[in-house]
Amino acid sequence: MRVKSTAGDSEYKLWLKPEEYEALCDVAEDRSHKHHAVALLGGSVGLRAQEMAAVRPEDMYADDGLYWLRVHEEAGKDTTGSGGKLRDAHIPQDAYVELLENRHKLDVEEDELLLGVTKSRVRDIVHELGDEMAARGDDVPGRSADWEKLSAHDLRRFFAQDRLVRKEMNPHTVMAIGGWSSLGAMEDYIKTPSDDVVADEIKRVGLS
Question: Would you say which domain of life the source belongs to (predicted)?
Answer without folding.
Answer: Archaea
